[in-house]
Amino acid sequence: QVHLVESGGGVVQAGDSLRLSCVASGRVFSSYGMGWFRQAPGKEREFVAAISSRGATTKYADSVKGRFIISRDNDKDTLYLRMDSLSPNGTAAYYCTAPRQACKVPPPVPTAYKFWGQGTRVTVSS
Fold first, then answer.
1. Which residues contact 92 (CB under 8 A, 6 or more apart)?
2. SS3 per residue for 3-39
3. pLDDT-derived band of residue 80, with 50, 70 and 90 as boundaries?
4. Is 114 helix (H, G, I), strand (E, B) or coil?
5. Cα(112)–Cα(99) distance, integer angstroms
6. What pLDDT sits at residue 103?
7. Separation of alpha carbons 37 and 35, rounded Å
8. Per-residue pLDDT for 92 more than 90?
9. Spatial contact of 86 and 94, defined as CB atoms under 8 Å apart
């Protein structure tokens, strides 16, 4: 079993920045890729970013390219999401997630991921 705990969400104004964190346990963290998804009220969960096991390769949704950065610190078993230039459409619950199998970079679909954190809420005001 993999346990994931997100933190760092909050209420911010448009243009502000946040860094989300996700602490993992129950698996050899450094052997697996990881991802972030988000879900706005009344909408489907959508892919945000993914990263390879050592952080050498990353993937981003087109909607966040150039503004968000996914990274990891394997010595701390922690995944990060740096979010800059936030806008109201960034308002959502953000979820850290891990796949069942080790992946170079996990695919951008929620069915590929088997373990999810509880989510951390981000609210961006105008």
1. 38, 39, 40, 41, 121, 122
2. EEEEECCEEEECCCCEEEEEEEECCCHHHCCEEEEEE
3. very high
4. strand
5. 6
6. 74
7. 7
8. yes
9. no
